Amino acid sequence: MTQRTGIYPGTFDPITKGHVDVITQALRVVDRLVIAVADDVMKTPIFSMKERAAMVKGDVTGLKDAKRITVLPFKGLLVDFAVKQESSIIIRGLRAISDFEYELQLAATNARLNPSLQTVFLPAGERMQFIASRMVKEVARLGGELSPFVSDAVAEKLRAYFKR
Asked: What is the domain count for the chain?
């Protein structure tokens, strides 16, 4: 039987409980999950790629099927990275209907670049749908409570960043 490998790409700046929810769901769909931490030049992450990858690793270590997860940084086209990882599935999380149009455009672009790739959309759980890294950073910047949104370890990193 062929192992199904899925790629879950993102900036993860920082990883949130919403991301972890999608990761948990993705493990039900694929045999191996590669969490691809993007060096996204279109966004301006507050944490380095190395720091973001370390936070992701820290947050997924305690998951039931953590042994089936690999966290890797990547640069360049996602479709090329997927081929290198021998993956035919791209996992994308959806929070709200507003995400769908953008995500559909990404899926169509990736399919045009590599027709063998299939995008699977996973909706965030109802308690996680509102969580966005951008909002979490704003709550952290203003000294708000972070426990509903991120792990304690990530909250600590955010507090340290905004103390500077």
From this structure: 1
- pLDDT at residue 128 is higher than 90: no
- Which entry of 19, 32, 52, 157 is annotated as an active-site residue? 19
133 tagged catalytic: yes
152 close to 133: Cβ distance less than 8 angstroms = no
Mean pLDDT of 142-151: 95
CATH code for the domain in which residue 32 is found: 3.40.50.620
Our answer to whether residue 137 is catalytic in this structure is no
Catalytic residue among 57, 68, 88, 95: 95
- The C-alpha atoms of residue 127 and residue 129 are separated, in whole angstroms, by 6
In what order do the strands lie in the sheet containing 32-38? 69-74, 32-38, 5-10, 89-94, 118-123
What token pair was written down for 47? 């944490």
- The active-site residue, picked from 32, 87, 92, 133, is 133
Tell me if residue 95 is catalytic.
yes
State pTM to two decimals: 0.93
Can you give the residue range of the structural domain that contains 47? 5-163
List the structure tokens of 135: 């909002």
- Going by C-alpha positions, the residue among 134, 111, 113, 97 that lies closest to residue 10 is 134
